[in-house]
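Appendix B: a complete holo record

For completeness, this appendix reproduces one full record from the ligand-bound portion of the collection. The bound molecule is magnesium ion. The inputs are the chain sequence and the ligand SMILES; the output is the full three-dimensional arrangement of the complex, encoded as structure tokens. No fields have been trimmed.
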Amino acid sequence: MRMKDLTIKELSDLIIIQAKEKGFGVSLEEIDVAEKFALIHGEVAEAFEAYRHKKNEGKDGLSMEMGDIVQRVLHLSAILGIDIQKAILEKMDINKDRDWDWKKINEKHA
Ligand SMILES: [Mg+2]
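The structure of the chain with magnesium ion bound, as generated:
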């Protein structure tokens, strides 16, 4: 199996294997869910700081920080029993027919 051909499910399974090996916890009894959500927030902040400082490559660069976010989301989702690939596709399907009233939202948009 070439690493670049992994599905989200296969990537999630690998993350769980590594979490087990490294002691990050692989069950609800072994983790603090609130702490894992906080750690996802932390990775988002790190990614934004990397972007802000135009540091794209390397250990603390934007690419790897974005990877950290996804890893932590996949880790927590797997422990919570969420089929994240299915969830993403279901939400994209909902969003496909959804309209946002940009006049009421303080967010830049195209
Ligand atoms: Mg990080």
